[in-house]
Amino acid sequence: MNRIIRYTYPRTASLIPALANRSPWAALESEMDRLFESTLGDFAAPALAPRFPVDLYEDKDNTYVRAELPGVNRDDINVEMVDGFLTINATRKHKDETFTLNRSVSIPEAVQADKVGASYENGVLTVTLPKQEQAKPRKINISVN
Q: Residue 90 belongs to what H/E stretch?
């Protein structure tokens, strides 16, 4: 059974520490910004940032990161795991223009980083992140005394 997990990219504003002299309305303003971004963010994101959507899902043995990168050559894709983050960089060339796309996703610690694999087929990049043995679900037998 696969589970789909929606990943949203953190807002830059949410990474800035709270200021001491905040307005009493600041919390309401932040919440309104968050609501509008979560509702309309997917429509505006392609025009505002060189990012691309990713899907995260898992089964009992692996976690998967799936990214649609149509029009990108396999040689123009770079995948790295550094400090618990999976970073995907891609370059798309179209006529006389070159577009650089990038995305970083936080990966749980229960992944075997040395066994991560990636495949690219029909414009879809799939990164396979094998789970460590202790992170895999195990069936526990119940004995009767």
A: strand 85-94
